[in-house]
Amino acid sequence: MLKVEIYKEIKSASGGDAITVDAEFSKGKITAIYGNSGEGKTTIFNSITGLVTPEKGCITFNDKTWFNSVDKTDVLIRHRNIGYLFQEDSLFPHFTVKQNILYPLSKAEQKKLDLKEVLEQVEMNGFEDSYPQNLSGGQKQRIAIARALAKKSELLLLDEPFSALDLEIKQKLYKLIRAFKEQFNLTILLVTHDITDIFALCDEVLWLRNHAANGTITKKTFESQIKQLSA
Amino acid sequence: MPNLTPIYLSLKLAIATSIILGLIGIPIAFFLSQWKSKLKVFVESFISLPIILPPTVIGFYLLVLFSPESFFGNFLAMIGLQIPFTFSGILIASMVYSFPFMIQPIQKGFENIPIHYWNISYTLGKSKMETLIKVIIPNMKHAIITGAILTFAHTMGEFGVILMIGGNIPGETKVASLAIYSDLEALNYKAAHVYSFILLAISIAIIFTVNALNRSKN
């Protein structure tokens, strides 16, 4: 389980502001972080990964404290073992698919890894020697997922990974992510401002309003709140 | 056939300057690309000075600095180091003179690397140094090669600064550009033609290489 209780100051269009989040994200569930642009969705991800440091709060994952402002705990990003799919290309252009997947692994882990099997899981067999610039957007995201799986990340953060993809490719990825969630019992967080992603993929939602969110809600509750808003 | 020592000296100087400046320039350019201080504009302006300063001014100040009459020059003389009118002298002078030509393209290269390359690498468990070596530098090799080629080309054509700090000593500091000048003064047009043609051929080759690199990058 991932527990996030943070206060993080941000610069917004209206000047200084702060994000306050207090939420628990269950293992084996996909939770959407939903909100308008500028609400601070990516800042929450960056706080979880350690790319930014919250002013106050605490982040724990499976009983390990990653961040605690009181006792100044701040586990290094590289020790948090998070799979992060960025909004932009998550692959390095100078590496082949194989090199991209092997990059986070130690020499011993690289020897143990069955690359063929990993590529099969994301339906990308035969692409090991291709460069990212020769892949489509959906294929790149699948390779990024394969890399997170090869790294055995238990927490997967997806930062609007479907925003530039066609519906058909999106649906393939939804299926893939759901399958991996079941197979590896992953905790998955998805940043999105597209409610179709939420209805298609997620179990719970953390709804950011005025830079704040207190607890997650079920997809059903989210749906009724959305209906109320549009009524 | 004229004596080819000046061509050899020019090539030796240009290669040494490019290699040493490359080794010094990459860390400095990286530091500048990451530095957020308000002082940055002053440091960058200072680094760019050799682009607009007359070479004779740079040569003059270097000569003053390394002269045995100065405190620093006197210290160097005491430990047995003579800089003016030696190959080491023209190497130092050409490094100062070509400094911005190496630093600026590499700094731009670092600044143009998307920030998410760093972030992806960090989340994949890599340190800043590993990310720099395995991800960032390979993705800006064009910038490094451009810096090295510009430095090499600039050094090949140096005249004033080398004349000031190195004199025109055959076999030691008389590089191709100085040899052309000397031969012209001595009405030895044939030798001047040979040196000029070789420098022209090298310059054309360099410009073609830089353009081809930029094209392949685009």
Task: Give structural attributes.
heterodimer, A: 231 residues, alpha/beta, 6-stranded mixed β-sheet, B: 218 residues, mainly alpha, 78% helix, globular
Strand portion of chain B: under 5%
How helix-rich are the residues of chain B, as a percent range?
over 70%
Largest protein interface? Answer: A-B, 23 and 16 residues
| Mean of residue pLDDT values of chain B | 92
Strand order, main sheet of chain A: write it out. Answer: 6-5-4-1-2-11
> How do the SSEs of chain A run, as a string of H and E?
EEEHEEEEHHHHEHEHEEEH
- Helix- and strand-based class of chain B? mainly alpha
Structure in words:
The complex is a heterodimer of chains A (231) and B (218). By secondary structure, chain A is an alpha/beta fold. Chain A contains eight helices and twelve strands. The radius of gyration of chain A is 18 Å and the shape is globular. Chain A starts with a strand and ends with a helix. Chain B is mainly α. Chain B has eleven helices and no strands. Chain B has helices at 5-34, 40-52, 55-66, 71-78, 87-112, 115-123, 128-136, 141-156, 160-166, 176-185, 189-217. In chain B, helix 1 runs parallel beside helix 5 and helix 10 runs antiparallel to helix 11 (189-217).
Kindly summarize this structure in a few lines.
By secondary structure, chain A is α/β, with parallel strands linked by helices. Chain A is built from 8 helices and 12 strands.
Question: Could you give the topology of this structure?
Answer:
The complex is a heterodimer of chains A (231) and B (218).
Chain A: E1 2-12, E2 15-25, E3 30-34, H1 41-49, E4 56-61, E5 64-68, E6 73-74, E7 82-85, H2 97-102, H3 107-112, H4 115-121, H5 137-150, E8 155-159, H6 167-184, E9 187-192, H7 195-201, E10 204-207, E11 212-214, E12 217-218, H8 219-230
Parallel strand pairs in A: 2-11, 3-9, 3-10, 7-8, 8-9
Antiparallel strand pairs in A: 1-2, 1-4, 4-5, 5-6, 10-12
Chain B: H1 5-34, H2 40-52, H3 55-66, H4 71-78, H5 87-112, H6 115-123, H7 128-136, H8 141-156, H9 160-166, H10 176-185, H11 189-217
